[in-house]
Specification:
This protein is mainly α. It is elongated, with a radius of gyration of 18 Å. The protein has one domain. It has seven helices and no strands.
Length: about 190
């Protein structure tokens, strides 16, 4: 059963990765680079500052730091200790059949995607924080997180299963940390 799922994951990876063209490579490299999202983060911080009280802003920033730490460390635990599943670009039977868009492949192991989990965690958390003031922002942020996840497949460094798991874990953590933030704000703000 597990072997069959892994085979499906490889086949889906080759299909999705194979959709890429040099015309779109720059766009997906832009999306996958976490530093290019800094203007988005600055804009979201601006929206939070405009719509929340000082204590709420400080608690939100604290919980963003906690969220990213937890999500990142969970991804590292899965990648480097629990699963040790090679990235597609380190998988011998795929290397000759895939497109590796970036110069390097990253670490040896890739289950699950830290980029996908961090993006989904932030999208879920910030989307819920701002949803009361901006009704549709959560959908825009979830779409952005899905694009970040897909970019990891496109450039050749993660399997779809890595991305899907990362997005699920990130969404769960984002929701839990939002609920914790709500509890703390109601108690202390």
């Amino acid at each position: 059963m597990i072997d069959q799922l892994i085979q499906y994951d490889k086949e889906l990876f080759l299909f999705l990765n194979g959709l890429g063209t040099p015309t779109w490579d720059g766009f997906w490299m832009f999306i996958t680079n976490k530093y290019y999202a800094v203007p988005l983060y600055a804009f979201l911080l601006f929206l939070i500052i405009k719509t929340h009280k000082t204590k709420e802003i400080l608690f939100t920033l604290l919980f963003v730091a906690i969220l990213i730490t937890i999500t990142d460390q969970t991804a590292n635990l899965f990648k480097k200790t629990l699963f040790l599943r090679f990235r597609p670009c380190h998988t011998a039977d795929l290397v000759d059949h895939m497109r590796l868009v970036k110069d390097g492949c990253g670490g040896s192991f890739g289950y699950f995607s830290g980029h996908a989990s961090n993006a989904m965690a932030l999208a879920t958390f910030i989307g819920l924080v701002l949803q009361k003031h901006f009704k549709y922002i959560i959908f825009i942020l979830l779409f952005w997180a899905a694009c970040v996840g897909y970019s990891r497949i496109y450039i050749g460094v993660h399997f779809p299963g890595d991305v899907f798991t990362g997005m699920i874990v990130g969404g769960i953590y984002g929701g839990i940390i939002f609920k914790l933030r709500q509890f703390i704000i109601h108690k202390y703000a």
